[in-house]
UniProtKB/TrEMBL annotation:
Protein EC: 3.1.3.-
Any GO molecular function: phosphatase activity
UniProt xrefs under Pfam families: ARMT1-like_dom (PF01937)
Protein name: Sugar phosphate phosphatase
Function: Metal-dependent phosphatase that shows phosphatase activity against several substrates, including fructose-1-phosphate and fructose-6-phosphate. Its preference for fructose-1-phosphate, a strong glycating agent that causes DNA damage rather than a canonical yeast metabolite, suggests a damage-control function in hexose phosphate metabolism.
Coiled coil: none
Family of this protein: Belongs to the damage-control phosphatase family. Sugar phosphate phosphatase III subfamily.
Keyword entries, A-Z: Hydrolase, Manganese, Metal-binding
Gene3D superfamilies listed in its UniProt record: 1.20.930.60, Uncharacterised protein PF01937, DUF89, domain 3
Gene Ontology cellular component terms for the protein in this record: nucleus
Domain of life: Eukaryota
InterPro entries per UniProt: ARMT-1-like_metal-bd_sf (IPR036075), ARMT1 (IPR039763), ARMT1-like_metal-bd (IPR002791)
Length: 456
């Protein structure tokens, strides 16, 4: 991997990366407040794990070694908090995974241009580095290599707050799949599932650290009436263009670059089920993260755990519809109609502009697709390179290298949880500022931005 290093793509004239040093931005509040809270939760989770396994008083040499490793990780995470809060320089990674060369070379190239500290480096880079660093702390151990610090206390706990919404959405999917629908009704159903997919992105655990189960269900709008109310919150809405593109696909391939586990993943699965049922897709490829990433991003483990947990819940309450739905999904995976794929590029420091070169094998594969669906705020930031774009910047300009003529049509489904926003009409940002000063970051506003294949 180190031999594949290439410098970060240059910033277009008149733009610069968002940084934690920019006060009155979400980047600043993230570095100052959110990231220390996330790290502190990691310390709390591992401390609980340490005591739950009675490793505080180990009874064997292996237990003693495991306890010592946990204490070392806790100390290192606490050190990260200290360095972050004091704007210290980021340190090179020291493990031996294949992506280390890329990370360290990127850090070195950024350091050559100015202070390589938590507040001064590009916000996107330092956030990604943080999760890669947390991963390093675990893989350098003997006993904690496979431990997901975000799974039990955050991802799995949030699952309980989503089951009611999952039950309702499964019933809706059953109802529409067992009816004979005309073309207009089919389009309406597809529109609903696209919007379910969009608003499922509201439940982001890196932002919602202490949300109650009742509140989580309220956020997961799963009724047609609820979606109609939310549609006015979609500030860029290319749904019609997206539906027209999907209508032109028959027995094709659709790729979903996933974001959060939990309910958002479930809404992705619902959409994928409908695309197969409707004859749009004969192959749906789900792209997961290689490592624990931004607290709630979907890993391969999360994907399979979710299926297991839903089915366990369905059996416990006697919900045959939900149980049979999971069996159908397992069958789609076994038959190869659905494919779960993990590529290291998704957890590298590059913007998606650089997929054609820095992720050449991945790019060659996704170019076989008829539609790319990028889910969530982080993927949006990576697509548009997380720069201080003017909101009236065209989507094509902001997508940069992703507008290569080989790139399939793509859509970004994103609820706004960070500063970047492009493709707005003149004056729209100012209108939004007056209506809701936090529209960029509070997750209450959405974007469905579609880009057709570049014509040559």
């Amino acid at each position: 991997m180190s031999s594949n290093y290439e410098p970060l793509a240059p910033y277009p004239p008149g733009t610069s990366p968002l940084r934690g040093a920019m006060k009155d931005t979400f980047a600043y509040s993230t570095v100052k407040e959110r990231l220390p809270v996330i790290l502190t939760k990691c310390v709390d989770t591992l401390s609980r794990e340490l005591h739950a396994r009675t490793l505080a008083a180990p009874s064997s040499p292996a237990d003693a070694e495991k306890a010592a490793e946990a204490k070392h990780i806790i100390a290192e995470i606490s050190k990260l908090v200290y360095e972050l809060q004091r704007d210290r320089p980021l340190q090179p990674l020291t493990d031996t995974e294949e992506d280390v060369g890329v990370w360290n070379a990127t850090l070195a190239s950024l350091a050559a241009k100015g202070p390589a500290t938590w507040y001064q480096l590009p916000w996107l880079f330092i956030e990604c580095y943080l999760y890669r660093k947390i991963h390093e702390l675990f893989i350098l151990t003997v006993h904690w290599k496979e431990y997901d610090i975000f799974a039990t206390q955050q991802k799995e706990t949030s699952f309980s707050g989503s089951v009611k919404s999952m039950e309702e959405l499964a019933k809706h999917l059953r109802d529409v799949q067992t009816r004979t629908l005309n073309d207009d009704e089919q389009k309406t159903v597809l529109r609903e599932f696209v919007h379910f997919c969009l608003w499922g992105n509201q439940t982001d655990l890196s932002l919602l650290q202490d949300v109650a189960h009742a509140d989580m269900h309220k956020m997961q709008q799963t009724s047609a009436a609820g979606l109609k109310q939310l549609e006015e919150k979609v500030i860029v809405n290319d749904t019609q263009a997206l539906l027209q593109e999907i209508e032109g696909i028959t027995a094709g391939r659709v790729d979903i670059i996933m974001d959060n586990a939990g309910f958002e993943l479930y809404s992705d699965l619902i959409l994928a089920d409908w695309l197969v049922h409707a004859g749009v897709a004969k192959l749906v490829v789900f792209h997961a993260k290689r490592i624990g990433w931004f607290v709630s991003d979907t890993t391969s483990r999360d994907f399979h755990w979710t299926l297991d947990a839903i089915q366990k819940h369905a059996k416990a309450i006697g919900d045959d519809n939900l149980d049979s739905r999971i069996e159908r999904w397992r069958g789609l995976l076994a038959a190869g109609t659905w494919r779960l794929q993990v590529d290291p590029f998704w957890t590298l420091p590059y913007p998606f502009w650089q997929i054609p070169t820095a992720g050449a094998e991945l790019y060659a594969d996704i170019c076989k697709s008829q539609l790319l669906i990028f889910k969530g705020d982080l993927n949006y930031r990576k697509c548009v390179y997380d720069l201080d774009w003017k909101t009236t910047t065209s989507v094509e300009d902001a997508l940069g290298g992703l507008c290569d003529a080989r790139t399939p049509p793509l859509v970004m489904l994103r609820t706004c949880k960070s500063d970047p926003a492009v493709g707005l009409r003149a004056g729209q940002a100012e209108e939004l500022d007056r209506a809701d000063p936090k529209w960029r970051v509070n997750g209450k506003w959405g974007m469905i931005q579609f880009r057709p294949r570049t014509q040559t």
